[in-house]
Design brief:
7 helices, 288 residues, elongated, 7 strands, two-stranded antiparallel sheet
């Protein structure tokens, strides 16, 4: 039972407010009644300060009332949401593994498709460049032959062999025309989108990302972890040679994936960090 709650000497301007006892609080079931009591306690909180044994006991009584009220309100909340939470928990236990299983298969296979498409496009680009180089070499060879014929034609003309010179010129013209007609075959590029009828699977070009062996990047990694193999061991080296303060910081530090992602591409990551292609980002879109 709360002791009598009287005003402190410095709160004579504020009227007394009634703070309920534990039994009275527990008897409240309506949330509006509890809200009203919360405002009463807030007012009492402002007017009451521990300045002597009596006021300290009054403060303790207010703490007691608020503690019991919080427990009571929480129990009332739990009575309402508990059954619903159980339904949600049971549904999650059944459905989340199914959802996550399908999502994992989808993402993994979509990444495989995206990688294949990217490799096909790169192969097409290499083949296209080979054909361009081949056509250019053919044109260069024809142009060289045409130049040689024109040189021969000029030499024949100076030697007075006008007819032979004209024939050489005509051959040079034909070769130059043939050179101008050399066409490079266009290699079709693999589409980034696969038509599935009612929907499409769209992929995108890979982007570079970083990896660290033995770390899944899903949560911070302890810089120094004596309980498990650490991929940073070789990078850190012998920390016993470092100042004691630096050793202390390293032993209590974690690598942040968020900060590493922000730094990737701005600075070069040292080994054992590595750079790989990220083929995620594919999506299935319904038509219409």
């Amino acid at each position: 039972m709360n002791p009598s709650l009287e005003m402190t000497e410095d709160a004579t301007e504020t009227p007394i407010v009634e703070v309920l006892t534990e039994e009275q609080v527990v008897a409240l079931h309506d949330p509006e009644a509890l809200k009203q009591q919360l405002e009463v306690c807030r007012t009492r909180f402002v007017t009451l300060r521990p300045i002597d044994e009596l006021t300290a006991k009054q403060c303790a009584a207010l703490v007691e009332t608020c503690t019991f009220a919080a427990r009571h309100a929480e129990s009332r909340r739990t009575e309402i949401v508990g059954p619903h939470n159980k339904i949600v928990k049971d549904a999650n236990l059944v459905w989340q593994p199914i959802v996550q299983g399908f999502e994992a298969l989808s993402k993994t296979k979509a990444a495989e498709v995206a990688k294949w498409i990217d490799e096909e496009r790169k192969a097409a680009q290499r083949e296209q460049q080979r054909l361009i180089d081949e056509a250019k070499a053919k044109q260069d060879e024809l142009d060289r032959k045409a130049d040689e014929l024109r040189i021969d034609a000029e030499r024949l003309r100076q030697a007075g062999q006008v007819e032979e010179a004209s024939k050489a010129e005509a051959k040079a013209d034909k070769i130059e025309l043939k050179s101008s007609q050399v066409v490079t075959k266009v290699v079709p590029a693999q589409s980034k989108t696969i038509d599935l009828g009612s929907s499409t699977l769209s992929t995108r070009a890979p982007k570079k990302t970083w990896i660290l062996p033995a770390w899944d990047k899903q949560k911070p990694l302890r810089v120094i972890d004596p309980t498990r193999p650490n991929p940073l061991t070789n990078l850190i080296g012998d920390i016993s040679k470092l100042p004691e303060g630096v050793q202390f910081i390293l032993r209590h530090s974690e690598l942040s994936p968020v900060l590493l992602n922000k730094s990737f591409g701005v600075i070069k990551f040292p080994a054992p960090f590595a750079e790989v292609d990220d083929y995620s980002g594919s999506s299935v879109r319904a038509k219409g």
